Amino acid sequence: MSRERRRRARTHRESNGVNTFARTVGGAVGSQFATAVLATMTVPGATVPPVAGHSTSFLIAAVAALLGAATMPLLRPRPTAPIPTTTG
What we know:
Layout: H1 3-41, H2 51-75
Helix pairs in contact: 1-2
């Protein structure tokens, strides 16, 4: 296996690990945050949260997703020119 293929394979494994970590943490934090919003908006004695609680949770999640999408281009590394190799 060439050095370039090994580097690509390692990079692919690292990106899969980061993706899994981000999805796990994001799912945990997001569900806890939505639960807190729903619990806060539930009237004492009611058995279910109001529709406004669900709407607020989805609105907050949409704003967070848009902020994340807007910041992604700023976090990506800039492409660099390849380093010339010499054969000899």
